[in-house]
Every structure is written in C-alpha cells, then in structure tokens.
Design brief:
Blueprint (H helix, E strand, L loop, with lengths): L3 E8 L3 E3 L6 H4 L7 E2 L6 E2 L1 H13 E7 H6 L13 E4 L14 E4 L3 H12 L3 E4 L2 H9 L5 E7 L7 E2 L11 E8 L4 E7 L3
C-alpha cells in the first residue's frame, strides 16, 4: 500500500523559500558534490545521492498545489521524476483542460488527490511537495511521514513549511538521519494512536 510522504528542503528556522519564492539558499545541496543521480540532473554527496536514488526508484506519483505548479510553470508538461503529478486546485489552468498524461488537476480536494495518486502509484510512495498540501494532509490524517532536507541556513523570514495546522500538535516518531554535504536528511513518521 502506498505511503504518503511530504518532502521539502527547509532552513533551520523552518522556511521552504524566501518571501519571493526564492530557493537558491535551500537547493545548493543538489549541486555541491561529485556523485550523479541517474535520471536527475544533480551532483551531490554520496549520502545525498543515495537518498535521491531511493526517491527516484520508490516514488510513483506526486501531489502539488496550484501555486507550486504555477511557479514551476507546469514543469514543462512533465515532472522531472517521470511520474504523474496531481495538482490540487480550485480551477484547471487555462490551456491545461486536456492536459498530457503527466499532469492531472484535482478540483474536489486533497483527499481525492491522495486517493487518485495512491491508485496511480501502484504501491509506491506518493510524494507531497508543498507546505499547503502537506498541512492539509496532516489535518486530514492522510500523511504517513515527513522528509525534511534540513539546510544549515537561517532565512529569518519566508514561506514556512508548517503553519496554520488545525490538527496541532502532531506527534512524530524518529528521526531517521542521513548526513549529506550542506544538508541533513531527516525522516519522521506521523504517529498514529
């Protein structure tokens, strides 16, 4: 059965981007090493490359929010991981009504997006890649784990990964820790009582 796992790079003070959606200080670890990740354009430390290889092999679908989709300009119609992307939105963007098989737009909520992504993932992981959708999944009890790529920088302000949680406090188990260069990969399981 597919697990639903949120995955974001985050500053030590809890931000996933600056106030202008900038991620340069948070994404440097993707190009700070000499090990390539097959299928992805990254050169990281060996430890981070192993984390990325695991994701490439085990993620079967992604869930994104509309804002992230717009910022990424729809990933050119197909996400770099080569898996279907379910975009949670109030309305399908113009020009995407008959989208390619890589993008699917879900207008009836996050629970529907999770159900559709799980069906498409074929037992593999469903990755969640935005703070808003992560928060909605946590509040609805749909998230199994949180993977944080913790970056040693303090942004001071920006877009927080965890804010406005209606279900707080949320108990977590772990972490599993992998130390890369310029990043510490942390995985926490959402505790179920």
């Amino acid at each position: 059965m597919s697990q639903v796992i949120a995955d974001m790079s985050m500053s030590l003070d809890g931000y996933i981007a600056d106030n202008n959606d900038g991620v340069d200080r948070l994404f440097g670890w993707f190009m700070n090493g000499d090990v390539e990740t097959p299928g992805l354009p990254f050169r990281t430390s060996a430890a981070s490359a192993e984390v990325l290889r695991d994701a490439v092999q085990n993620v079967g679908a992604l869930i994104s929010g509309r804002r992230n989709f717009d910022i990424a300009q729809g990933w050119g119609g197909a996400h770099g991981m080569g898996v279907p992307v379910y975009v949670v939105t109030h309305s399908v963007p113009d020009g995407w009504e008959n989208s390619s098989d890589g993008m699917r737009f879900v207008t009836d909520g996050v629970a529907s997006a999770v159900a559709q992504a799980k069906a498409a993932a074929g037992g593999k992981i469903v990755g969640v890649a935005t703070p808003s959708i992560t928060q909605q999944c946590l509040d609805a009890g749909l998230l199994d784990a949180i993977h944080v790529n913790l970056i040693p920088v303090l942004l001071g302000d920006g877009i927080p990964f965890f804010a406005n949680l209606a279900s707080a406090p949320v108990e977590l188990e772990g972490p599993e820790v992998v130390e890369g260069t310029g990043v510490t990969h942390l995985t926490y399981r959402v505790r179920r009582d």
